[in-house]
Amino acid sequence: MAFDKASVTGADVDGKRVLVRVDFNVPLEGERVTDDTRIRAALPTIDFLTGAEAKVILCSHLGRPKGQVVPELSLAPAAKRLSELTGKPVEMAADVGGEDSQAKAEALAPGGILLLENTRYEPGETDNDPELAARLASLADLYVNDAFGAAHRAHASTAGVATDLPAYAGLLLEKEVENLTSVASDPKRPLVVVLGGAKVSDKVGVIDRFLEIADQILIGGAMCFPFYKAQGHSIGGSLCHDDDIPLAREALAKSAAGNCELVLPTDLALGREFSADTDTEMLDGVDVPDNWMGLDIGPKSAADYAGRVASAGTVLWNGPMGAFELDPFADGTRTVAEAVAAAPGFTVVGGGDSVAALVKFGLTGDVDWVSTGGGASLELLEGKELPGVAALDDK
User: Order of strands, edge to edge, in the sheet holding 346-349?
Assistant: First the structure.
């Protein structure tokens, strides 16, 4: 599916002030950014704009300060890291569209970079307050949204401001939407979807949609236990949300009636408790005894999933296969991650813990597209329209 929104590459930005919504919601330790993936992801758009002599005004949220000024959630560490990555000075404004922002935006030279303070310091940000949107819009001549990770939120800095200025998609946002929508709209076959994580309800929209599109859906993580429960298996002390069981039953019925194979693990790695130094046992089967919990898919299932991934034309992976943060239960996720990284087909990894797993196993560079958005990638894959994308000007 072609991307139908106006791209920043087609905008006249020379000498113009450009407000860019980025996603600098990065983890901090004190005043140090511990993972700069999201800052790096914004560099192509920032470099494009500074190279075209635009005056670049960046804004982002960080954490959840809930409309209060929380000094620990200042974007100053992100400004420092961005300056190191670009080799250019990055000026920091003390507010969000207030007097300091206005003065610094007006003084900005062509090719210069200014970062506003945390947008969520403003109570109007999450309410999509038109007054805050107008204040932000008054700083610039045009608006660019490159914050895919926040595009599923209709906030003042993601949707509101786009109605007040000519609004374009940044390079990252454009690529995210194109790559994620291509999985559903025009996949090379077979399309294999690997879904893990804790709750069926978090992924039910994706499961429903891909039961109609995919050739196979492979289930891992604690998500498999509602499916086992729906089939009448015992799950011991494994994590299972009761409200997930009817959803799993519906998905099994839909798969049986359709053309998409829904695959569950056939063996499990068990632990007595959720801990790295717990007793462990391999279960050849899926009926978990009392006083044990399933914490990873077993080696047979991992090998089976890896084989299916290897022969896929397109692979979408979202969610780990087990408690990969605990070393005894990392093998299933590692095997699947290595298979996705080595797969000859087009590979897309969506958001959150799957990306953390790729980072842990050193495989991020071996996947065709690694999404920067957790919730945003899931909503897009479900087929929903994202407010931050919908608000942009059409091509």
Answer: 261-263, 216-219, 191-195, 314-318, 346-349, 369-370
Query: What single string gives the DSSP state of each residue in 120-155?
Result: GGSTTTTTT-HHHHHHHHTT-SEEEE--GGGTTS--
Q: CA distances (Å), 183 to each of 70, 152, 178, 191, in order?
A: 40, 19, 9, 8
| ∠ Cα 176 59 387 (to 5°) | 45
User: Residue 352, by phi and psi: left (phi above 0), alpha (psi -120 to 50) or beta?
Assistant: left
pLDDT in tens, 194-204: 999 999 999 99
The domains found in the chain, sorted by start residue, are 8-172 (3.40.50.1260), 179-380 (3.40.50.1260)
- Whole-prediction pTM value? 0.93
Kindly tell me if the per-residue pLDDT of 247 is higher than 80: yes
> Identity (one letter) of the amino acid at 57?
I
Closest to 248 in 3D by CA, of 278, 271, 225, 280: 225
Q: Which residues are catalytic?
A: 38, 199, 352, 375
Q: What percent of the chain has pLDDT over 90?
A: 95
